[in-house]
């Protein structure tokens, strides 16, 4: 069953979450520990984030500092296959366009198809940490270009135009959307235009950027429906678990913090108090979303497994 089909089932709101691959040198057991902690809530799928190489300068034997590319985390292909094989839970790796060449993307698609991992989340990815060489590489400038490559792969057309036998099971995929507008969108009309383009080109569902004000999600969904976007729009939720996230999350993810939540977080003396506030707010958010019959709730569990566990225990 494809991920998009889970959202069309009647009954309980689908539970899913996102994982961050461990730093290089650490065991995959870290991933398994998180899944073991959350699997009692019957996750319909698990997202695995993908990370491009980062740049560091190291001194060589002649004392010259040279720039090198370092992958600090393992790729999502092997992790997705390991999760799917061990747990029988649908694994959904992120495929990002910036920081990876079209050829690298094709190799990843070949491996994923061979391993039976056929659901993807297509994203542009964060460009802020890319250097000049990475920005100039032969990659897709936008996620819609990545869509075209995946669609062509499903038809048996390689990135260079050559043909091959199409995969027995074509890839299906979801994409991101932004209820509070992507930072590069000039206005919400533009945001809706590109959101509809993603769906028209094959996105079977959408997952939102994290938000903390449900009214903004409901307003966005209403505008999407008015624009003819009919696919499931899954709310992406993150329980705040650190006091400094009051300023970090709006800066990094452009997510507004509601005034009531801001006041509670500012009164916290430490991270433990902030974590309790975050869990309480997130529980209220999720209960309200479920009362509005959302098809699923997707949790951004990065560094917040215990908070997600407490929230899910209260609402599932």
Summarize the structure.
The chain is of the alpha/beta class and 316 residues long. It has 12 helices and 11 strands.
Topology:
Blueprint: H1 3-6, E1 14-19, H2 29-38, E2 43-48, E3 54-59, E4 65-70, H3 76-87, E5 90-96, H4 102-115, E6 119-123, H5 132-136, H6 143-155, E7 172-177, H7 188-200, E8 206-208, H8 214-226, E9 233-234, E10 236-237, H9 245-253, H10 259-266, H11 271-291, E11 296-300, H12 305-315
Parallel strand pairs: 1-2, 1-11, 2-5, 5-6, 6-7, 7-8, 8-9, 10-11
Antiparallel strand pairs: 3-4
Helix pairs in contact: 11-12
Task: Walk me through what this model shows.
By secondary structure, the protein is an alpha/beta fold. Helices cover 42% and strands 17% of the residues. It is built from twelve helices and eleven strands. Strands 9-8-7-6-5-2-1-11-10 form a nine-stranded parallel sheet. Strands 3-4 form a two-stranded antiparallel sheet. Strand 7, helix 7 (188-200) and strand 8 form a beta-alpha-beta unit. The longest helix has 21 residues, at 271-291.
| CATH topology category name | TIM Barrel
Quickly count the domains.
1
Q: Which series of helices and strands comes N to C?
A: HEHEEEHEHEHHEHEHEEHHHEH
**Mean pLDDT over the residues:** 89
Key traits:
two-stranded antiparallel ribbon; alpha/beta; TIM Barrel; globular; 316 residues
């Amino acid at each position: 069953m494809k991920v998009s089909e889970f959202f069309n089932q009647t009954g309980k709101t689908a539970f899913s979450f996102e994982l961050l691959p461990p730093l290089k040198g650490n065991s995959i057991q870290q991933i398994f520990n998180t899944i073991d902690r959350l699997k009692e809530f019957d996750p319909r799928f698990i997202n695995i984030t993908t990370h491009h190489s980062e740049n560091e300068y190291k001194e060589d034997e002649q004392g010259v500092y040279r720039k090198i590319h370092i992958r600090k985390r393992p790729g999502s292909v092997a992790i997705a296959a390991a999760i799917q094989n061990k747990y029988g839970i649908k694994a959904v790796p992120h495929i990002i366009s910036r920081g990876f060449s079209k050829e690298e993307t094709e190799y990843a698609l070949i491996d994923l198809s061979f391993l039976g991992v056929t659901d993807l989340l297509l994203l542009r990815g964060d460009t802020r940490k890319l250097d000049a060489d990475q920005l100039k590489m032969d990659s897709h400038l936008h996620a819609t270009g990545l869509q075209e490559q995946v669609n062509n792969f499903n038809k048996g057309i390689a990135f260079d135009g050559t043909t091959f036998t199409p995969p027995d099971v074509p890839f299906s995929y979801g994409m991101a959307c932004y209820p509070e507008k992507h930072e590069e969108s000039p206005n919400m009309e533009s945001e809706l235009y590109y959101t509809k383009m993603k769906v028209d080109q094959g996105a079977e569902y959408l997952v939102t950027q994290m938000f903390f004000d449900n009214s903004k999600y409901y307003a966005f969904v209403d505008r999407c429906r008015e624009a003819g976007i009919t696919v499931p729009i899954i709310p992406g939720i993150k329980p705040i678990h650190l006091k400094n996230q009051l300023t970090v999350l709006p800066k990094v993810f452009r997510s507004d913090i509601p005034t009531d939540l801001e006041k509670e977080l500012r009164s916290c003396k430490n991270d433990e108090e902030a974590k309790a506030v975050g869990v309480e707010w997130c529980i209220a958010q999720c209960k309200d979303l479920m009362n509005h019959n959302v098809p699923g709730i997707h949790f951004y569990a990065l560094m917040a497994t215990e908070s997600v566990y407490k929230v899910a225990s209260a609402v599932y």
